[in-house]
Amino acid sequence: MDRLLRSVVVSWLACTTLVGCVELDGAAVSGRELGLAEGDAQLRLVHASATSGAFDIYLGDGEAPRWAAITFASVTDYVAVPAGAVQIAVRPAGAAASTAPLFALGTSLAEGDRVTLVADGVVGSSVEAVKFRVQAVAEAFAPAEPGTLRVRFVQASHALQNAGYDVGADGTVEVAGLAPFATSEPAGLAVPASPKPVQLAVHAGTPNRRLTAFTLPATALTEGEELLVIPTGVPAVVPRDPRGLALLLVGRGTLALVRQNPTLYLLPAIPNAAGVDLHLFGALLGGVQVADEAGFGSLTAVQVPANRSGYGLLALDGAADADTAGAPLAFALTGTLEAGERYLVVASGFRGDCASARPGVQVAVIRDQFATAQTASGRLRAVAAAADAPALDLGRFPPGDNTPFTSIAGLDGLAYGATSLAEGTEIPAVPLNPALRPTGTDTAIRFRFGSLASVDRVLAVIAGAHAPAAGDVGPRLVMVKAANSGAWTAQVVAPPQQ
Amino acid sequence: MKHLVIGALVVAGTASVAHADPAQLRGSDTLYGAITDAVNQSGLSAEIQYLGGGSGTGEAALRAGTQGIAPMSRALSPAAVEDLLNQGVTPVAHVIGLDGVSVYVKASETLAQLDIPTVRAIFTCTITDWSAVTGSGKSGPIAVFRRNDDSGTTDVFKSLVGITAFGSCVTPLATTVAIAEETSTNPAAIGYSGLSAERLGANKPLSIGRTAAGPFVAPSTSSIRDFSYPLARRLYVNAVSDGRTPSAAEEALLFNLTDRSFMDPIILANEFVTCLPDEDGGCP
Domain map of chain A by residue range? Predict the structure, then answer.
């Protein structure tokens, strides 16, 4: 109700201004159509350039912008313009009308035309395939059958090659082979209206393969809606980044920016479990086994619909026979999983070890919050997941012979369950030579690991048994590289002598 | 032999897309000899001509989309990474070898070592007379030489020494050869370059300490491999992926550049340092 009320207020405010721009706010506001006079056409603009700032839009030879300070992921109201030739010029917000436009477009409108201008590409780029542009998308949806809506895809992501769209994520790609800046059929795809969110899987590349998935909100899937689904941003940056690949939904009653479904990276780090079965439960997902006998330090990725209630995670001992499931090791709730986010889920502690009173299995959910701005140094975040270890300092041995253990600021005194600075600690681009030392002592365990490149974001999971019993995995660092795009990877690093 | 067969197949695959004139590839001057050797030994000289020009030119070509790979003597700058990401391109850094930025004087000079604060003072012109340099055993104006701004060696040198801008007493020269010739003949001169340039004349590489207290470390294979030499650096081929891919000929060259059995002999022949064997840690 609060959202609806806020949306109404925002719409009202927008309608009372000259500019008439409707800012993004959830999924319940829209561009406003005008009652057309004879001889007029309608025009509106969507800012779908995720890498760009705000724009002023000029129509004809006007000296003032028709729409001012249009920000990413917003859409203007429709305006009526006389049918015929119309000139559109885009300038950075606040730039003088006398300055050269970022882009100028001439188009011809017939009486009754309804056109959405889509601003996309990269401002300032001279690369033909990605440079900034404004596309004129004539709206010519076929009438929606009862119980359906019409959906048209407008490729504003310059980085999605050979894109395909699978409505329902059921394995059937309804729209295939879209190049950057291409659009699907003007009539639109007939999609059943839905009172519940619907999954949309995006495929890309050659050969075409599933890249990611989104959850389309039910508010966008109403009967009769004419929906432009505009992929924007790029998959090369992290999904939560404002430049990350996202879907901009623009309809007659819809405006929403939908980020990619969250991804969980499940990491068993139980020193005395040879293999772990992992199951997820929850709304929009049901129950699904996501890992089978996953070994210590092996990483399993699973993308799930965003869910404020999160999911249940059940870890079972993988050492089961053909007839019985393994013994439960832990059940935990993930907590809220937000669209656009990635999470490392670490199962640590000891399996069924009551006799020695060692800590049982615990599950920790750690959200990727690494700084995304590029500098000359990579970043490292420590995760203390060695249940039997005292508080530890994660440090390093500087290059050279007989160099001393050297602390890394912010990575000292890490008790079980602790994590270091969420944005990560900058690490110079020389061999890391990481080492662990119980806080307050001089005895360090040295590991061999190379350098972090400037683009690297690494979660250093302190794992293993630090007072190992027979058969336990001893002290380990599991270096989880949180790649911008594609799957994360994990490398289990042992002390050289083991 | 296996490598040659694979290389021949890759080259054969590029034949249909080869241009009448070879594509011009820009990048590190430091790597000019090594990359040229790699192009020739890959049988790609009809498809690719390596021009060098400095790491900055290779980086610019990646950003402009005119190259899919760029040999560079430094990592991509943060601005270049951001630019490529905005284009939807994932940059991939391949380390093909190691090098040290060598600070050197004429071989007959008594000076044997410098700490980084002193190097910085010399190249920012805070110190302009040899009398202020401990161990030089002489006085008189220092003649300081550097590479031009397209040089990846210069970028690395500035970064590792902590120089934002060179002083006005520093003379830029167009090539590493020119610097080496100057320092080998001028007793007042000091310059820097990649290790391979030292032998172009009678130059003496100096041991370098991070502080005046040392330790002072000479550039050597082991001190560069473990980065105890303060001016050790990686040699890269930076490539694009995801949103854009290298051309077929570039892919063929990249395949060989990242194959250590092919590239390590070339790295050694060009007086760089190879990475450790993969089982001992590989490229740091």
Answer: 1-20+261-367, 21-258, 370-498
Closest CA to B52 of B148, B150, B145, B146: B150
Distance (Å, whole) CA B247 – CA A123: 25
Q: How many CA atoms lie within 13 Å of A408's alpha carbon, on the beta-carbon side?
A: 27
Rounded to an integer, the average pLDDT of B255-275 is: 93
- Choose which CATH entry (2.60.40, 1.10.3470, 1.10.260, 3.30.160) describes domain A1-20+261-367: 2.60.40
Q: Please, are residues A422 and A398 in contact by the beta-carbon 8 Å criterion?
A: no
A115/B206 Cα distance (integer angstroms): 69
CA atoms within 13 A on the CB side of A220: 27
Stretch among A169-178, A193-202, B201-210, B246-255 having the lowest mean pLDDT: B201-210
User: Are B90 and A485 within 8 A, CB to CB?
Assistant: yes
For residue B64, the distance in angstroms to the closest alpha carbon of chain A comes to 6
Q: Which amino acid is at A128?
A: E
Whether A109 has its CB under 8 Å from any CB of chain B: the answer is no
HSE (CB half, 13 Å, CA atoms) of B56? 10
- CA dist., res. B101 & res. B184, Å (int): 17
pLDDT range class, residue B191, cuts 50, 70, 90 = very high
Instruction: Please state, in angstroms and rounded to a whole number, the distance separating the CA atoms of residues A168 and A198.
Output: 6
Burial of A98 (0-12, 13-18, 19+ CB in 10 A): exposed
- Is the four-CA dihedral B116, B213, B206, B135 of positive or negative sign? positive
Q: Which residues contact B18 (CB under 8 A, 6 or more apart)?
A: B46, B47, B249
Cβ contacts below 8 Å, chain A against chain B, sum to 91
- Structure tokens, A33: 């159509």
A236 interaction partners in chain B (CB closer than 8 Å): 84-85, 87-90, 242-243
In angstroms, what is the C-alpha Rg of chain A? 27
